[in-house]
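Trying the structure run again after the queue cleared.
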Amino acid sequence: MPLALLALAIGAFGIGTTEFVIMGVLPQVADDFGVSIPTAGWLVSGYALGVVIGAPLLTMLGTRVSRKKMLMFLMGLFILGNALSAFAPGFGVMLIGRVIASLAHGAFFGIGSVVAADLVAPEKKASAISLMFMGLTVANIVGVPGGTYIGQVAGWRVTFTIVAALGIIGLLGLAKLVPEQGRPENGNVRTEFAAFKNVQVWLAMAMTVLGYGGVFAAITYITPMMTRVAGYPEGAVTWLLVLFGIGMFFGNLLGGKFADRALMPMLFTTLGSLAAVLLLFTATAHNKALAAITLTLIGALGFATVPPLQKWVLDQASAAPTLASAANIGAFNLGNALAAWLGGAVISAGLGYTSPNWVGALLSGTALLLSFLAAFLDRRARRTSGRVVAGSTRTQAEPTPVPIGH
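Done. Tokens:
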């Protein structure tokens, strides 16, 4: 495989680390800035909202320059945002830094996937894309727990300084290893947006927002939940996040394996199981062993929803695969922002640190209901039109789905 994939994977590793590591150091950040934990949760919501805005906007603007230059620009934004967070004199400045870093997130994965696929022979495109996204997966097994440990020992500012340094390494790798591929051909923007007239596209986005949002309702406040409810010492949060990352890794693999075989049944199973496990977490969070097991299951079930949700979106928006890919990353992060805000709201209302789990179960359960509706509309459309739904069979002209790690 080309060394350029390593540069892309390093960028993905840094982005994955900065997105999730904030959850491990949230109490320290809150204490340093003198704000409540729910208020500090805006650092999660702000990042997620930045992805929602930046993913489609920067992806479309990226058609004006070469993909390599755009990737380097995005990594520069990432470095600037994390450096600003690391040296922020106040909470507001850190929030701005988080938003700046987040603007690069969606477009990097969208454009990076295209670059990765173009680096190899046609029969190896999926493997190349998977290698880039491996950086995101590894971030949740190594980068996030490691960053949490460093933050607890040396301070959270050191964590964000190291993440910015990772960005510099990624930028240098992109400059040195990624070949110039020329400016991509401009697509028909009107055609891209016309695909969103399909109600199924909006249902798919809603399933993504609510389904993955269920995970973030619990995970955003996992540190206080594990330390103040389950009774773990603060240092244990590091290996607990490792368990969550391992769950993510295997869940993503299983979700991808079964999504092509039976997409909607896989989606029904994962969303239903996720809602049930989140509901169960309100009870198991009071026991150390059960809390650790449940946390691993949440990671597995949460990321098992990613491949079927992503594939369903691309199937329903087959006329606009580029914009759909970026918009779906935005949808995942819109769910993150919504869930983090709702989780903070129920904690602020005095319902306790396990109350975000109820929110998560409600969000995932609602996504399950929407998946039933989407399947019903899909079957009715096939009966009435007598046509094959886009994505149920594939032709050479159709784009290869881009796997999304988060």
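The longest helix spans residues 355-385. Worth checking whether this holds up in the mutant runs.
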